[in-house]
Amino acid sequence: MNRKNIYMIQPNYLYGNSAHLPYAAGAVAAYVFSDPVIRENCELKKIQFLREDPDTCVAQAEEPFLIGFSSYVWNFEYNKILAEKFKRAYPGCIIVFGGHHVAPGGELLDRFAYMDILVHGEGEEPLRQILLALLGKGNLHEIPNISFREGGKAFNTPYKEYSSCDYPSPYLEGYFDDIVSGHPELSFELMFETNRGCAYSCSYCDWGSLRAKIRRFPLQRVYDEFEWACKRKIEFFGCADANFGILARDEEIIDRLIELKNTTGYPKKFQTSYAKNNSQRIYNIGKKLHDSDMNKGVTLAFQTLCPEASANVGRTNVSLQHYKKLMRLYNAANIPTYTELILGLPGETYRSYADGLNMLMEAGQHHAIYVHNCEWLPCSAMGSRAYIERFGIGISKIPLNQPHMALSKDSGEIPEYSQIVTKTASMDHDMWIETNMLSYTVQCFHHMNLLQFFAIALHDEKKVAYIDFYERLLAYIDHHAASVCGRVFADIRRRLREVVEGRGGLLCYDSEFGEISWPFEEYAFLKIVREIDTFYDEIADFLRAFGLPDDLFDSLLLYQRNIIKRPNRKTAEFDLAYNLHDYFAAKFKGESAAPVRQRITLKIADSDIMTDWASYARYVVWYGRKESKNIFSGFVTAKDGGNA
Predict the structure, then answer these.
(1) Which CATH architecture has domain 4-156?
(2) What pLDDT is attached to residue 606?
(3) Which whole number is the average pLDDT over 253-262?
(4) Which segments of the chain belong to CATH 3.40.50.280?
(5) d(Cα 402, Cα 380) in Å, to the nearest integer?
(6) Which residue intervals of 462-549 are DSSP H helices?
(7) Measured between alpha carbons, how far is residue 36 from residues 32, 33, 93, 572 in Å?
């Protein structure tokens, strides 16, 4: 008997030489082919995970019966072009689109004739039933959560929430073995689930639109997947749970990961989205990962500190007092944290956003703040026409906003797009630009440390609010366009204007820093460090105007200039009139401290020297940002010269 050929498509970009295994496509395939009827009548010919030439894909295919496309923002345009080419070559094949970029309802069927069936939400059970129906063992009308054409019009079946989570693992069933063994040049990342579902309903998130009871995968499956990856020496593990740490067993899962690292050497790093209401359990998890050198930073997410914006998006945050308590806890244990914010939520203004940034710094967040521009997602509550009209949302379509993607060497690369919220009823385009400029200023100069030590000292010694310092800095930069930072930030302002005009994006490229894309704040940092001595010479007048005592100012400038890592710099030794290194170490731990006059000789000795800018950009700025790897800390020794 000739079995029918099935293809699953989930292409993604490379990030340097790192590749994501196509977990969604593999998970659906593993479940679908666990059905004996499908296994007897169908054959899985290929799971595609790279953005291969579409014409080559079609030419190499063997009489496809059904092709399933897992679609999201990073592959939707590619998938559409590939699907259309398949349909032209094989008019009888069934094209099924699923994934988070397939909006509710049948609108895509009205727009794209080559699409036959849409799957809304989880794909395992719907695709199994679709295949059975196509094999004469069922009826499309009886399958929940799909759309298909009937009488030339889209027919939408009722929504159903699934309760099972006992699906076979694509890793353990061998669906990725050939991919890994066939691409020794790539470094793969393990993406896994321990549970599925999200208890929250934030309007900007396409998880929130599928708000569902949390269902747990069997622990043994999770542990067996870990061992599968360790045997293949996969260094990076990413957990796809919406709220890792929300369940008591999550701490046991981390214990198992650490045990595997101790016995096999893998994984090297672990990253996840932590539960929104950060708890003692998440602190325990973060500390264990930190002590095992597996921590990529613990998320203390707010998204917004504006009460009106929080209400508009259905977000409930921890209290600021609790956040301060958490910051003291993590800082005292030297556990890196990062706080995420979203810029462009309805109800937010420049002033509310600036005040929010200030509150986070006042609370002790000096490690990392990541600001994400709000992205309009079709499966989120924000994706609905009613929501857009209610809050006056304006959207700018830009090239895909995914930092650190490898640059394509193919001139025929199919572009992907992000849709960024650049206007709301409370924030017009000009305000969006100014808010972004302040955001990049804080991220680059404070959380990437270029002027952080001055900001902290001025906050303590002169009662200068953090946000006042950075607003004044941005004004100074704008009025000194010929300076190092002036040139960089003028370029960013120009690019932001192009975004709202529909002809620009939010990423930069510079071959000196590697063949990958950079978000504006990291790009600005790299460009400034490239001329770091000139930068500090130029910015000295701005800093001196705050009126610090001359000896403290001179020591701060010397310390600030030398504490930033740079390529090809192994050692440095300099004399200070104040105990600045101990002072800042105490501040980062959340302790009360003040600079004390004391003659100190600091010596920096770096054992991990980056000899070129591309390596520095990748390992210090990209990989090391959440852990403040761009400043010297563990390599600093102090020699007491007595009281000044």
Answers:
(1) 3-Layer(aba) Sandwich (3.40)
(2) 80
(3) 97
(4) 4-156
(5) 19
(6) 466-478, 484-500, 520-530, 532-544
(7) 9, 7, 22, 68
